[in-house]
Amino acid sequence: MAAADAVTAAEEQDKWLADAMALVQHNAFFMHRALDNNNLRDALKYSAQMLSELRTSKLSPQKYYELYMKSFDELRKLEFFFKDETKRGRTNADLYELVQHAGNILPRLYLLITVGSVYINSKEAPAKDVLKDLVEMSRGVQHPIRGLFLRSYLAQVSRDKLPDVGSEYEGEGGSVNDAVEFVLQNFTEMNKLWVRMQHQGPAREKEKREKERRQLRDLVGKNLHVLSQLEGVDLAMYRDVVLPRVLEQVVNCKDEIAQYYLMDCIIQVFPDEFHLQTLESLLGACPQLQTTVDVKTVMAQLMDRLSNYVASTPDVLPEILQVEAFGKLSTATMKVIDAQPDMPLVGAVSLFVALLTFTLRVHADRLDYVDQVLGACFKKLEGRGKVKDSKATKQIVALLSAPLEKYNDVVTVLKLTNYPRVMDHLDYETNKSMAVTIIQFIMKNNTLISSVDKVEALFELLKELIKDSEGNPALDEAKDFQEEQNLVAKLVHLLKNDDDTEMFKILEAATKHFTEGGSKRLSLTLPSLVFSALKFVRQLQFRNATDESPVSPKKVFQYLHQTIESLSTVPAPELALRLYLQCAEAASDCDLEPVAYEFFTQAFMLYEEEIADSKAQITAMHLIIGTLQRTTVFGVENRDTLTHKATGYSAKLLRKPDQCRAVYACSHLFWNDDGGTQDGERVLLCLKRALRIANAAQQVSSASRGSSGPVTLFVEILNKYLYYFEKGVPAVASSLVQGLLELIMTETQSEKTSKDAAVDAFFASTMRYIQSQKQKSDASGERYGTIQI
After folding, report:
1. pLDDT for residue 129 is more than 60
2. CA distance readout (Å), 304 to 165, 261, 321, 352, 507
3. Which of 361, 455, 367, 437 is nearest to 400 (CA)?
4. Which domain of life, per UniProt (predicted)?
């Protein structure tokens, strides 16, 4: 139904416009005939009838504009006729009097303005007098739309006839003061007519009227553009005359649409240097605007213009400082917010975003100004808790992102004391996203966080990532939890300082924050701290730090012990065991035997008490054996104790094959090519023990399956024998290798042994290797020559 009504209304408008256009064209035809015949009386008669169509109240502003433009084109022809008429002896004063005899006021005033234009052009009368008369006479039309277009016509035809500085009409025709007074008076009357439109007609058509008013706003704004183009309007006149009069009209009209548009016009049309010198007056009007006016956008545009001005003309920066632009903008921002207690939070924060953007562009070196803006925003947010409005949240994120993007340095941002206070008001997910952004900035720029204070400040910003807090979802349900914690872990490696004491304090501070983060985070974040500390130990070792040094390797290892011990709350025994072994190896490199022994002890205790899964035990055992093999710091007694434990636990693994592999791996604990332990007898003992376990495994397989299992273990042990045989271990004689070869040959040819292609290929490869060694002409060939295949 509404759509049908709209179509009908549009059709009616088209019909009324068509009728009016037809009458304008009809009368224009007769007017042209009269003009061609130099018949002034008929010309005036038909032009008045043509202009009478502009008296209609039926047309919408858009349609009325089309009718006006048609009439305007015809009036231009009439104006040329009036100029020619004066050449034929008729004075402009006579014409000026003659057109005032038109019957209706609207046609009369259009004709009067047209003649007035010719009158001014002829200089037969001072321009100021004619302009004053025209602007006063135009008050006779008080219908909003008709009056606006009439005055727009007056502004249009008089634009090039104002007595401006340097104009041909200056002097006897008046001064720039007269030109300014004329434009201001016309502007004032047009604004009144424009505002009056809002209060005409029924309340239900309010939206329609507002739409129509927005279509007509440029008619009013053109007056301000004319003022800005006047050569004689210098800073003094703008400050003392133009701006006060315009602002008076803006404030007093108390109309939302007019106030917003006119403030925007002032900002856009007048020069930047004028705004800079009249900042206080312009900003003083902002709190006086209606509460529904979008002041934040107005002020944002002003700040944007000023900051662009400084960017394009750096020489004006001292002037900016002289007029205390920041102080005035800051004060005005607070006044606007205080004057509008019902302003939505998003509006207030948007104002702070605009102010901060201005500050960062103009006063980037003044961190105190930046912090002041953040502090003002925090004061506005204080007591509100977490912000739930999504639009306001978006603006807060923009506020917090601005310093990051400007300085591109998180260390600089950490100096802003109010930054974390504002960030606290973000909801959990947004706060976390902001924290991730901060870490990404650090990683992207490889920014080093080099003091305890900075670490504390940074972790205050990242607390939603590194600690549990109220409102957090369960971590099991949290999206991207592991990726976020990995980011935090990477961050640890950028916590650095060349001073040993400060570096140690940084590690302790980071550990304190991480251990408060809950058990689920520890397993993801603590390892990075451990490896950072181990790197620190290597540096201390390189610098030959001793126990008397402010920070000694022993002190760092004590810290590491406590840090890894905190993983027991997770629990994460397998991770803790790996970290203990890393520390043991580092302690060995630092020649700290008691420390290394303690870390091995802790690893064995974890293995005994915490690791129950058989697969985890296998992995742990091989890690222990590998680490122990690489450590060279132990004396005979400590090494024997540890190797005894390692071989003992290896033989107690659940499955026989796992026992076998762990035991033959233990053989490496007794033979070190780098001049360490070299005990061939114990190597052989491990290999023989592994062989016995392999035999037992074969028998178990035969008993349970009815046939022997594959001979994989035997081939693996053969390869260990060959390794030590090549190394020249005296106890591993060729006869032992020969015996094992024959055993494998027998097993593989047995009908009870199940066939396995992979095992056969493994054994064949081993045999080829032996054959290739036998064919060599060096010591290796001589050694392998005793083995028969």
Report:
1. yes
2. 31, 17, 17, 13, 44
3. 437
4. Eukaryota
Give the count of beta carbons closer than 10 Å to the beta carbon of residue 497.
20
Q: Residue 288: what residue type? A: Q
Single-letter amino acid code for the residue at 679: D
Please state which of the ranges 37-51, 183-197, 693-707, 728-742 shows the lowest mean pLDDT. Answer: 693-707
Query: Per residue in 599-636, pLDDT tens?
Result: 999 999 999 999 999 999 999 999 999 999 999 899 99
State the pLDDT confidence band at 764, using cuts at 50, 70 and 90.
Answer: very high
Q: How does pLDDT run across 353-366, given as a tens digit for each residue?
A: 999 999 999 999 99
Q: Which pLDDT belongs to residue 563? A: 93
Query: What's the rounded Cα separation, in Å, for the pair 605 and 599?
Result: 10
Token digits of residue 594: 């008691």
Average the pLDDT over each of 39-53, 95-109, 555-569, 729-743 and give the range with the smallest value: 95-109
**Residues near 106 by beta carbon (within 8 Å), at least 6 away in sequence:** 51, 52, 54, 55, 141, 146, 150
CB neighbours of 172 closer than 8 A, spacing ≥ 6?
123, 126
Residue extents of the structural domains in the chain: 7-125, 126-270, 668-788
Helices (H), 706-775: 712-727, 734-749, 757-774
Phi, psi angles (nearest 5°) of residue 591: 60, 35
Q: For 148-176, how does the pLDDT look when each residue is reduced to its tens digit (9 = 90+)? A: 999 999 999 999 999 988 888 888 888 99
Backbone angles phi, psi at 498, to 5 degrees: -75, -20
With a CB cutoff of 8 Å and minimum separation 6, the contacts of 782 are none
**pLDDT score recorded for residue 218:** 93
Task: Give the tens place of pLDDT for each residue, 537-593.
Answer: 999 888 887 777 888 899 999 999 999 998 877 788 999 999 999 999 999 999 999
733 in helix, strand or coil?
coil
CB 111 within 8 A of CB 48: yes
Residues 416, 221: Cα–Cα separation, whole Å: 43
Alpha helices, DSSP H only, in 363-389? 367-381
Half-sphere exposure of 162 (CA within 13 A, CB side): 27
Q: Measure the CA–CA gap between 294 and 299, rounded to whole angstroms.
A: 9
Planar angle of CA 455, 460, 465, nearest 5 degrees = 105
User: How is the chain split among helix, strand and coil, in percent rounded to 5?
Assistant: 75, 0, 20
174 DSSP β-pair partners: 171
pLDDT for the residue 472: 61
Task: Calculate the CA dihedral of residues 99, 100, 101, 104 and round it to 10 degrees.
Answer: 100
Determine phi and psi for 708, rounding to 5 degrees: -70, 145
| Concatenated DSSP letters of 404-466 | HHHH--HHHHTT-TTHHHHHTTS-HHHHHHHHHHHHHHHHHHT--B-SHHHHHHHHHHTHHHH
Two tokens at 498? 């060349």
pLDDT of 719 strictly over 90: yes
Q: What is the pLDDT of residues 387-412, one digit of tens each?
A: 999 999 999 999 999 999 999 889 99
Instruction: Return d(Cα 82, Cα 80) in angstroms, integer.
Output: 5
CA distance 331 to 284: 10
pLDDT score for 1 = 42
pTM to 2 decimals? 0.80
644: number of CA atoms within 13 Å, CB side? Answer: 6
Average pLDDT of every residue of the chain: 89
Q: Which residue has the tokens 């007509």?
A: 216
- 8 Å CB contact between 393 and 425: no
Nearest to 120 by CA among 89, 158, 80: 158
Burial of 80 (0-12, 13-18, 19+ CB in 10 A): exposed
Q: CB under 8 Å to 59, separation ≥6 — which residues? A: 13, 16, 17, 20, 67
